[in-house]
Amino acid sequence: MRRRSAASVPSEQMEKGAGKNQQNRLCCLVLLSAFFWILLLYFHFVVLGNNNVDESVKLQPGTVDNDSPSDLVARQKAIPSKPTKFHEDVIDAHQIPIPLEPTQRHEDTANPSQTSQNHVEKENFPFMRALRTVENKSDPCGGRYIYVHDLPSRFNEDMLKECRSLSLWTNMCKFTTNAGLGPPLENVEGVFSDTGWYATNQFTVDVIFSNRMKQYDCLTNDSSLAAAIFVPFYAGFDIARYLWGYNISTRDAASLDLVDWLMKRPEWGIMGGKDHFLVAGRITWDFRRLTKEESDWGNKLLFLPAAKNMSMLVVESSPWNANDFGIPYPTYFHPAKDADVFIWQDRMRNLERKWLFSFAGAPRPGNPKSIRGQIIDQCRISKVGKLLECDFGESKCHSPSSIMRMFQSSLFCLQPQGDSYTRRSAFDSMLAGCIPVFFHPGSAYTQYTWHLPKNYTLYSVFIPEDDIRKRNVSIEERLLQIPPEQVKIMREHVISLIPRLVYADSRSKLETLKDAFDVSVQAVIDKVTNLRKDIIEGRIDENFIEENSWKYALLEEGQREVGPHEWDPFFSKPKNENGGDSSDSSAEAAKNSWKNEQRDQ
What we know:
Layout: H1 11-56, H2 69-75, H3 112-123, H4 128-132, E1 146-148, H5 157-161, H6 177-180, H7 205-214, E2 228-230, H8 235-240, H9 248-263, H10 268-271, E3 276-283, H11 305-309, E4 311-316, E5 324-326, H12 338-349, E6 355-361, H13 372-381, E7 385-389, H14 400-408, E8 410-415, H15 425-431, E9 435-438, E10 461-462, H16 465-469, H17 475-480, H18 484-501, H19 516-537, H20 549-552, H21 584-595
Parallel strand pairs: 1-2, 2-3, 3-4, 4-5, 6-7, 6-8, 8-9, 9-10
Helix pairs in contact: 1-3, 2-19, 12-18
């Protein structure tokens, strides 16, 4: 049988074979084309688009005065892997749409899947929307929004209704009037200005700060925009009610109630409370009870795990803990407008000051470490020193006009430790344009790092306590060594600090000046913003030592390492018999401070 040659194949069969091959080629071309376009679209929208978004969430550097030690503590704590997300339905009057403008594109696109993963991880942080507000230059509140918790009235206003119970010895009702400023002071003797002066109690910062917050120009009802979250709990008033004669259950009740309430709020889940802050117009030792002994002092608010995440602003902070920050004691001056401040500053510049130095205070015979006795002795024997002795009963120390008149007539004002590190008198003296003389760095330099320059020689004189205790130094001779021209420069610096050391009247508004409230709020915002940046970048300071908190507060921006310091001897913690840290001295200081409040009334 003969085989068929190729030429003998029927023409219809050849046509069928040719059609089949052509169909296969066409399908192959279509698949290749589709794959090409898919690859092109993936590269454009996923890789390049992802880089644009990554760049859009890069944050602009904020105006941060200090990298506080509390930031470093917070960095050591784990960040929730599944952060709580808020709904964004509430529209605030200040809320402005936030554009996500692309900036510089990343050049490294070698690993698009890793880039996409990093983007998703960043977007998972629930505070990203708040951080992006900084980028919106048309929003004057960008990066400055504050969300205020709407606490039940038992945490604040109800305490004011029971104002007679806020102090064992003092009827606080008159001091809580006028938005916490107290009754107006008449300018009978010409010591004050005609307006803006009040008989303000030194422990009313709780209500003063909360009332100032009500007029803050960047409040928001949308917590997802907030740079920080304020808790209007009157912590100082709460503990003041129960310091004497109450068991620890009563002293701790409101604090435990507060943290329980906060931790149930969705806002808490964003950062576990690390973006929350509150204010207490008392010294930190009133909130740091270490034991369950009924005889131990104060409550344990600042040792509660939840409270350790929050920032607490107090009139005296602990040098060894990182969750509290010092803010100024209130003075008698609460300006309603910028002009009130400018007029007062000019008046302080032009006063004739006949005394080289002065001191207002009482001895502490029960405290063997106190140098007040030696200071009083030096004042008494000096012809250029002025002494205003304070004691129980009638005293000129209880008269704001007597105190301010003496400060206004002095070049230097001596500010030794009170019952604890700090005293209100330091701020009264600076308000009078008097250069403060400190004897312990914990009285100002490590306390008020948000409000005072780190270079303390610009505005003050430092004489170590031991020099006075061992009678190695004559205060008069030490101050006379400062050239008159230098004294003038220092006094001008003190006067320039006045706006940031006073609390303005919350019923009006300063136009351009920033008062103690403004400085404090901005510092909290900077602290939280820095912490959020560190969380995004995964930065953790594993070498942070909380006991050195006072050292971290003195670091310049960008510095992170601390070492030996000339002030180490001032802050060596007392030890008990078993070698552990003792709270006896701190508790005793708080107790004595409370007892001696009678001197100031």
